[in-house]
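ok so for the tutorial part 2 we go from a plain amino acid sequence to predicted structure tokens. step 1 is just haveing the sequence, like this:
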Amino acid sequence: MGQSLLPPQPVIYLIEPYGGSVRRQNAHMPHVFWDDSAVTRGDGIFETILIRRGRTVNLKMHLERFRVSAAALDLPDPAASQWLEATTAAVADYCRERGDETGESIEATCVWTMTRGRESTGVPSAWLTVRPVNPEFAKQRKSGVKVVTTGRGYTLQQAENAAPWLKQGAKTLNYSASLAALRWARENGYDDVIYIDPESGRVLEGAMSTVLVVKSRARLRTPEPGNDVLRGTTQRAVFDYAAGRGWKCKAKTLFVEDLFSAESVWLLSSTRRGVRVTAIDGTTLPTPDNAEDIAMLIDASLGAVS
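step 2 — the prediction. this is what the tokens look like for a chain of 306 residues:
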């Protein structure tokens, strides 16, 4: 019998909340029920973690944000011991099954997911997957991305307590609006989106990324996190690393004109890492002399955390 042409299957581990078991799941068998809130309502949380050289990157920050998200949505606190046990086992399985037990040649993505669970039981569902990084990300790191600025179509910048159910800092499964924005951008010749407040021109975030602005005199800036800007784990790692090497790093209010006046603009995310913005709203941005240095700074920051 010839060798299978099917791609390697992802590694999946199920986690039982409230201190239950952690176990491997057959990738060919279903594990989400028809009445799970992830399917019927998009009600849940997730984190995406980069695996480089067989090791997790930024794990402490991801766990911290995962717990914040769970608390915001009134889900059980993710027990660190369970998630770390499952992640360690899944990464080891993934590396071994791809013929590299040391993981030195491995780059992958690990996604943690927790939902409110089945309507019929009310018990949350939780699992993680380890699978290859999207090959498109490497192309974007090499060639950059053209972005369009746009409003979200709604605002989360409310007066205090005007909408107390809109929880700050939660990374939820409800990404349908962002995916629709990306489809619209690509249909119109762009690669990505940067959300702005259409009234003020204030910069918010990418559809699935954090905006990083590089300014002269070794300054790094990012939009201040809040209800409409999720705090980015990759951005935090970059700031921590860069600050120790003389960069002046600050989260502050940024406007569209700050993007055009910057030395360079980058989109940061866990598995895409750092991607330079080459054009905004049809206007080409100049390539800075230090573009390679900034890319190396971002990559080095992700190698410096675990």
